[in-house]
Structure formats: C-alpha cells, structure tokens
Amino acid sequence: MPGVVDLPHPERSEIQLTEVLFALSDPERLAIARQLVDGPLDMAACHATDPNLPKSTKSHFMKVLREAGVIRNEPHGRQRLLTLRRDDLEARFPGLLDAVLGVTTA
Amino acid sequence: MPGVVDLPHPERSEIQLTEVLFALSDPERLAIARQLVDGPLDMAACHATDPNLPKSTKSHFMKVLREAGVIRNEPHGRQRLLTLRRDDLEARFPGLLDAVLGVTTA
DNA sequence: CTTATCGTTCGATAATCATCGAACAGTGGG
DNA sequence: CCCACTGTTCGATGATTATCGAACGATAAG
C-alpha cells in the first residue's frame, strides 16, 4: 500500500510525556532527534549513527519518534522531510527538549 | 540472600541520559519519581498509583529507577528510604528533572 | 528467643519491542 | 512509458522487559 503517503501524527494535545521519553530513551533515536535541532532534514540525509542501517530499521525508528510526537514526517518530492516538533513539545513540556538535547537555545 | 542491604547505585558521572529517560518512560515509575519531589519517603509510604501492587513488582520499579540513577534506595530501620537524586541529575542534565516532573522549582 | 514485618531476589511466564529481508507503491528522470 | 529510487508495511525471529508468587534474610517488637 504505502510508498510516499501522509502518515498519521498525534495532535499537540495528544502527545504523551511517557511516550516522548520512551522514544528518546534509545541512543539511535536520540541521535536522530539531535540531528534535527538545526532544522528539517531529508531522511536520506539523516545518518544518525550507523550509515548502513537497514531501511526498514531506520523507518521503524522514525515511526516511533513520529507516533510519540517528537518528529514530523512529511512527503517531500520523492523523499521524506523530517522535522522536530519543537513548538508542540515546548508548549506541552516546557524546557524538556532543551534539557534532553542539551541545547540552551537562549 | 538480601533483606535490608546496601544496594548498588551508579555514580553521578555514570548516569546515562537514555537510561534516565527509559526509567521515567513508564507511568508508574514516573509517578513514583513525582512523589519524591517533596522529599524522601519510606517505601511503604510510597503508593504510586495502585495501592495493592505486588511487592515484587514494586521492588522491580525501584530497581529500574535506582539503576538508572533517578533515585537512591537506602536502608532505614526495617524499611527503605527512597530519595530523588535531584542534585546529581541537575548537575548532569540541567533542567531535565524540572521539565519532566513539571516543577518550576523557581 | 520468637514472631511479625519489610523488601529483595529468584524463577517462570507473558507481553512488548527490536531487527531485518522482502514485497510494494508513489515519485521523478530519461 | 518505463525504470530507478525512496521509504513504508508485512512477517518472522530473537531479545528485552514486565509481572507476580514464593522463598529468604534482616530488623524490630513483644
């Protein structure tokens, strides 16, 4: 069924703290989130740690992060654009993202 | 073997962010951490959510939190004193605990 | 000393999660 | 139009984690 398709994202109000924490409790997934701090990235450009990670595994990481409300995953041409949901997370859990990602943001 | 015994705790420098996040990614464990914000508590006085939770399950929660470095679990008479490791966590991951526990601390 | 209480450990079972190959579907280029 | 490319889904397997009864040790109280 799916190739480049709109995937479901939780609304801001539906984001659960425990799910966010769980999503970020894996080193690989945390690394992905960190990469998105400086702005959106195409999935192909997002290497996290292991460069030759199987596609399906990588896609699964994105699913966990997306379903938790940490990132947005949208069609972008033939690829996918990954965006950190900073505003939503900041509104829901002030200071959390900065603390986790080690960003002072000022 | 063990009844009231000294249990191993990670040192401040050994505390891993991903383990802390994982420990707090469970609603029950998160509730326990929140209960300790106002100060140490005897384990028996710490009801989290379910009051008639089996002892072994409760003990397991404490183990996860302790091994992650979130709480300290020390002998206290016949019971056990649970303490949130605020200073250690604040030193290692500034702002994290406040954000997670929803405390502004001021 | 004997007994009741507290909480950890052990062991077994169930549930959840991770990993990855294969198949598939949109997209854009030739 | 056809093909190469990207990334999701499915399905199977293995690894972690959760749950809880039972047994044990240590302490405090009587």
- Pair with the biggest interface: A-B, 18 and 18 residues
Radius of gyration of chain A: 13 Å
Cα separation of the termini of chain A: 44 Å
The major sheet of chain A is characterized as:
3 strands, antiparallel
Strand line-up of the largest beta sheet of chain A: 1-3-2
Low-confidence stretches of chain A: none
Number of contiguous helices of chain A: 5
- Average pLDDT metric of chain A: 92
Q: How are helices and strands ordered from N to C of chain A?
A: HHEHEEHH
Shape of chain A: globular
What does it look like?
2 copies of one chain form a homodimer. Chain A has 106 residues and is of the alpha+beta class. Helices cover 41% and strands 13% of the residues of chain A. The first copy, chain A, has helices spanning 17-23, 27-35, 55-68, 86-92, 96-101; strands spanning 41-42, 71-76, 79-84. In chain A, strands 1-3-2 form a 3-stranded antiparallel β-sheet. The model of chain A has no long low-confidence stretch (mean pLDDT 92). Chain A binds chain B through residues 17-19, 21-22, 24-27, 30, 93-96, 98-100, 102, and chain B through 17-19, 21-22, 24-27, 30, 93-96, 98-100, 102. Chain A binds a DNA duplex (30 and 30 nucleotides) through residues 1-5, 7, 26, 43-44, 54-60, 62-64, 75, 77-80.
